[in-house]
Structure of Pyrroline-5-carboxylate reductase:
Amino acid sequence: MNKKGDLNMIGFIGAGSIGGAVITGLVKNGYDENEIIVKGGKSSRTKDLRDQLGFKIVSKIKQLADTDVIFIGVGANALDSVLKELKDIVDGKLVVAFTGTGTVAHLKQVLGYDKVAHAIPNTPVKVGAGFTGITYSDKFTPEDKKKVASILGYTGQLVEVPSEQLGILGTVAGCSPAFLDLFIEALSDAGVKHGLSRELAYDAAIGMAIGASKLAKQSDLNPSALKDEVTSPGGSTIKGVAALEENGFRNAVIKAVDAAEGE
Ligand SMILES: NC(=O)c1ccc[n+]([C@@H]2O[C@H](COP(=O)([O-])OP(=O)(O)OC[C@H]3O[C@@H](n4cnc5c(N)ncnc54)[C@H](OP(=O)(O)O)[C@@H]3O)[C@@H](O)[C@H]2O)c1
């Protein structure tokens, strides 16, 4: 029995960057580690994570037979072979693949099974502040979706979207932690340039990003109006905004998303 209710055993195939982040987010936010079984790859990554979090490891996919929901976190190169191996035990389970590419149709076809979903989490799932887009196959019942949501809900927000929007949602929410990290680093560099210690500059930049995001989330105002609120006429903030625009800030962000989308 899980701490939050009546969930049963869940399985993971692949506990690398994203699989490991989801498992970490689950356990650190109260999901019972005794209800998580993981089939890892060849390296010591899964064992290292198990030593921190305490879930159970198995060496074969068929040992996930007693699970209700299976999450797949392997890379594209291993996906099809994993799906083929999963065929033998998949009946009655819900399968959620965290693949960056691919579609529900592809998952269904290779697995030869209908209750599959495609989800794209981002790395903040690790601290329970993730944003995960998900597309379910049409065979998922409302109860099935509730079950998946009750698990991934431990890691942050889960938003269902049609398959044609999953890719761009995955880019906007999934690639952008790296973009924000760059912004934080650059802001911190600027602080250091003007005399702050590196530690204080990072503290200030990260604290601002958390606080400004929280405000944007909780405020009735959209980000554009929030910006207007802090740009007094002739003031220093509007001068900074103008300098960002002079250097193509918004265009650079849009082009980064275009590039991540392969355009
Ligand atoms: N990273 C992200 O932010 C992110 C976000 C959303 C979606 N995704 C998608 O998630 C997928 C995985 O990406 P990732 O960044 O997590 O890659 P990753 O760090 O390379 O992790 C993949 C893991 O799969 C394991 N693995 C490989 N073959 C396996 C098998 N047969 N059985 C069990 N485990 C196996 C590997 O284990 P060993 O290394 O131990 O061999 C590795 O730890 C990709 O499709 C990616 O596009 C990633």
In short: Residues 170-260 form a domain with the ProC C-terminal domain-like fold fold (CATH 1.10.3730.10). Strands lie at 10-13, 36-39, 56-58, 69-72, 94-97, 116-120, 130-136, 156-160. The mean pLDDT is 95.
